[in-house]
Amino acid sequence: MNQVLLVDLTKHGQKKKGLTIVTTSFDGYLYLIDGPTSCADVVDIGETSYSMVLADNVDGGDDLDLIVTTMNGNVFCFSTPSPHHPLKSWRSPNQGRNNAAYRLDREGVYVTPSSRAFRDEEGKSFWIEIEIFDKYRYPSGSQAPYNVTVSLLVPGNYQGDRTIKQNKIFNQPGKHRLMLPTVSVRTAGTVLVEMVDKNGLYFSDDFSLTFHFHYYKLLKWLLVLPMLGMFGVLVILRPQEAMPLPSFTRNTNL
């Protein structure tokens, strides 16, 4: 028996009603069982599957995708009309070390959409914004303090430390900003955000980005700007009145 997926498949603009149980079976069907009504929808995938259905944003859009693997070695990705949220994603059965519960509207940490957007970073440092979400025992109390560790993971072509870490303890949920240093080589990296609450529950989120991949844009301006400057000087210092061109003819009768 595989582990079931609990996910909110509420569509855009609809009122939240409850969670949906998503699971596969040996009969080749993908089952989506609505929690409040117990009504089941099935999708015929035609192959046996015993693994857990995972959920994440795969295609880079704003919707949630369901990932199904089969015993034949095939991987299916089903798009849903439900909007994606980082706390909705379920990338592994255990979601890290010891968290097997649904995180949205409960407890978790995630990188805000503006900070997790794929981009190229330059300079000496960059900012990321995270949000600590905690409604586990609201309003009776929170699970603070929250021990947050932000790690920058870089590949082997970087000569420095492979992992650059920063640790900070927050006593209140909400949005917080942290600054990380950039690496000095042209490479890609992954930012991993980890949080442990007072009960020892572990939550994490991550995103990828690149460093100095578009340095050639600076070289382009280094070539173009001097030429534009010289052209501007010639335009400013040009003669204001028309002057006759010098003549080298030997005809003195003219």
Descriptive overview:
- Residues 108-212 form the DEX1 C-terminal domain.
- Keywords: Membrane, Transmembrane, Transmembrane helix.
- InterPro entries: DEX1_C (IPR056376), FAM234 (IPR045232).
- The structure is a single chain.
- The chain has 2 domains: 1-93, Thrombin, subunit H; 100-226, Immunoglobulin-like (Sandwich).
- With 254 residues, it is mainly β.
- The N and C termini lie far apart (110 Å).
- The model has no long low-confidence stretch (mean pLDDT 85).
- It has helices at residues 113-116, 216-236, and strands at residues 5-7, 20-24, 29-34, 40-44, 54-56, 63-69, 75-83, 107-111, 120-121, 125-134, 146-153, 163-170, 174-181, 187-196, 202-211.
- The strands form 4 sheets. Strands 9-15-14-11-12 form a 5-stranded mixed beta sheet, with no helix packed on it. Strands 1-2-3-4 form a 4-stranded antiparallel beta sheet, with no helix packed on it.
Name the structural class: mainly beta
H/E series:
EEEEEEEEHEEEEEEEH
Number of helices: 2
Supply the CATH superfamily name of the largest domain.
Answer: Immunoglobulins
The mean pLDDT is: 85
* Morphology call: elongated
Determine the strand fraction and express it as a percent band.
Answer: 35-45%
| Largest sheet data | 5 strands, mixed
Q: Give the N-terminus to C-terminus distance in angstroms.
A: 110 Å
Number of domains: 2
Low-pLDDT residue intervals, each spanning 5 or more residues? none
CATH architecture heading of the largest domain: Sandwich
Binned, the helix content reads under 10%
Give the total of beta strands. Answer: 15
> Strands of the largest sheet, in order across it?
9-15-14-11-12
CATH class of the largest domain: Mainly Beta
Our Rg estimate from Cα atoms comes to 29 Å
**What's the CATH topology label of the largest domain?**
Immunoglobulin-like
